[in-house]
């Protein structure tokens, strides 16, 4: 039970840090996303989160993405999936630049944070705001 209480305190702190009001639906979304080892779509969240309507869930996800609490990554079908960001992210500096792995069998999207990327050098006049690396193949469960 202590783990749940500590998690809830962590989520409350996260909401406060990003100037978001503490609500039960927001806490449930954070709890569900933290329990997953894959990025999760809005329909999947709807099916497990309980009595939160689609519009409220959309607004929660949008606010969390805008504040740098979660990031969005698309699966092979073009469906948006959401995963928690690292603790360094905020609304002004979103750091979700890591490898995303799409499994071609189960369609799960994994965030693989521990991979180095080559330096990106752009031509003069270009300003990099974000980038996305996606790999496809079979996840350990499917291979």
TrEMBL record:
Keywords per UniProt: DNA-binding, Metal-binding, Repressor, Transcription, Transcription regulation, Zinc
Cofactor(s) needed by this chain: Zn(2+)
GO biological process, alphabetically ordered: negative regulation of DNA-templated transcription; regulation of secondary metabolite biosynthetic process
Pfam families to which the protein is assigned, alphabetical: FUR
Gene Ontology MF terms in the entry: DNA-binding transcription factor activity; transcription cis-regulatory region binding; zinc ion binding
Family matches, as Gene3D superfamilies: 3.30.1490.190, Winged helix-like DNA-binding domain superfamily/Winged helix DNA-binding domain
Keyword Ubl conjugation: no
Co-factor remark: Binds 1 zinc ion per subunit.
Residue positions binding Zn(2+): 103, 106, 139, 142
Family membership noted in the UniProt record: Belongs to the Fur family.
Protein name: Fur family ferric uptake transcriptional regulator
Organism this protein belongs to: Mucilaginibacter auburnensis
């Amino acid at each position: 039970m202590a783990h749940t209480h500590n998690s809830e305190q962590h989520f409350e702190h996260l909401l406060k840090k990003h100037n978001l009001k503490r609500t039960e639906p927001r806490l449930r979304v954070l709890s569900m996303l933290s329990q997953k080892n894959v990025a999760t779509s809005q329909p999947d969240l709807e099916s497990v989160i309980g009595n939160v309507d689609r519009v409220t869930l959309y607004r929660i996800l949008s606010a969390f993405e805008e504040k740098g609490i979660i990031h969005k990554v698309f699966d092979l079908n073009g469906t948006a999936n959401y995963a928690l960001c690292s603790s360094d992210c905020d609304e002004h500096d979103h750091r979700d630049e890591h490898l995303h792995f799409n499994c071609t069998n189960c369609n799960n999207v994994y965030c693989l944070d521990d991979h180095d990327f080559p330096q990106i050098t752009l031509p003069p006049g270009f300003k990099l705001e974000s980038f996305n690396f996606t790999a496809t193949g079979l996840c350990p469960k499917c291979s």
